[in-house]
UniProtKB/TrEMBL annotation:
<dbReference type="GO" id="GO:0004867">
    <property type="term" value="F:serine-type endopeptidase inhibitor activity"/>
</dbReference>
<dbReference type="Pfam" id="PF00079">
    <property type="entry name" value="Serpin"/>
</dbReference>
<protein>
    <submittedName>
        <fullName>Serpin B6-like</fullName>
    </submittedName>
</protein>
<feature type="signal peptide">
    <location>
        <begin position="1"/>
        <end position="17"/>
    </location>
</feature>
<dbReference type="InterPro" id="IPR036186">
    <property type="entry name" value="Serpin_sf"/>
</dbReference>
<keyword id="KW-0732">Signal</keyword>
<dbReference type="InterPro" id="IPR023795">
    <property type="entry name" value="Serpin_CS"/>
</dbReference>
<feature type="domain" description="Serpin">
    <location>
        <begin position="34"/>
        <end position="407"/>
    </location>
</feature>
<dbReference type="InterPro" id="IPR023796">
    <property type="entry name" value="Serpin_dom"/>
</dbReference>
<dbReference type="GO" id="GO:0005615">
    <property type="term" value="C:extracellular space"/>
</dbReference>
<dbReference type="InterPro" id="IPR042178">
    <property type="entry name" value="Serpin_sf_1"/>
</dbReference>
<dbReference type="InterPro" id="IPR000215">
    <property type="entry name" value="Serpin_fam"/>
</dbReference>
<comment type="similarity">
    <text>Belongs to the serpin family.</text>
</comment>
<dbReference type="InterPro" id="IPR042185">
    <property type="entry name" value="Serpin_sf_2"/>
</dbReference>
Amino acid sequence: MVVLSIFLAFMGQLVSADQQQQLALSSASSDFSQRLYQKVALNKSNVVYSPYSIHSLLTMTSLGARGDTAAEMKNVLGITSLGESVHSLYRETIQQLNSQSNVQLLTGNAIFINPSYPIVPEFIQETANEYFALTDHIDFSANGGPEKPINDYVEAKTEHVIKDLLEPELNSFQQAEINGFIVISKPGAIDNYTVMLLVNTIFFNGTWNYPFDVTKTGMQDFQLLGGAVKQVDMMSGYQIETNIKTDDVNKVDVAEIAFKGKRFALYIALPQEVDGITDLEILLQKPGKVDELLTGFDSKNIKITMPKFRIETKIELKDVLIDMGMVQAFSDKSADFSGLSQAQVYISKVIHKAVIEVQESGTVAAAVTAAKITGKVKPVPFIADHPFLYFLRDKETGQVIFQGKFSG
């Protein structure tokens, strides 16, 4: 009996320690999100992004980083104190998110690889083990360009909400030397210099625990900053018992609108003053303030009226992340991703796209984050700055249709 008690106490400590680490990971992601918010949202009237998608993808990418590059990435992501356990924590998070039954929630990772580059096998194995990442080759011969199969993958994983993430190829050619071979490509989102593309997708579809009454939706006044008024589609809910928080110190009220199952909820943080959004944004810059904002609720009988809306945002994150301190990862000279590839590679682009639609029945949201890993290449010069011959030739028959000389 004593042995059983000791065992149960030990297991309780393990569970508690694991919960603490999960809280530390969510806190790191939340703090990263607020620092990111200051860079991408302050000057926009409407914006949406997925902190989980961006943070998890960059953390997965850091598996291949070494030295100062890894240190910078971990510092910006706020995961230094978690050590290597951060990857197993994300493994648990992915498993939990994908096992929901009351809402539709699907998240996944994929890595698209250029077979011309040497990839460290351990990186592929670790991303598969910890992030359930699927691996495929970039199809440079695909109809519509190599971007299309990846765009199709993203669209399928987000239930057709996110479309055309990657831009197609351009109408110009580039020539370069890669691993001793001369290659000619049309530079688009993906070209022959692309070593790999790491992709995270997340899709959410939840029904409100108490749906809004469609018949009560109508145009109402919405007060804008500066005193202007705009007519927007406003939903009006039933009078329900829900969690609400009145914070008179920080002058903000927060309402929790739960989805079925009550594990997930949409929180509306409404400044008590019409022009109080700026003060709230400043407040949330401080570490831990979001967690503080979303705790301490009381259950009250309220009637919620809020806009029905759809927001779509696409963000290029390279310059933002550099400004936040993730410098070396984007440098073609000093990036160290030797745990990812035996070639000299660096992150050349991070793209994020997100969509959210809030309506009477519930909320649909989807996001994707893609990190492009590029090889450091040596351009092959071809400068026609002295007399040359030229030939216009039919490649099929071999016939030279025109021939000539240019001497300036």
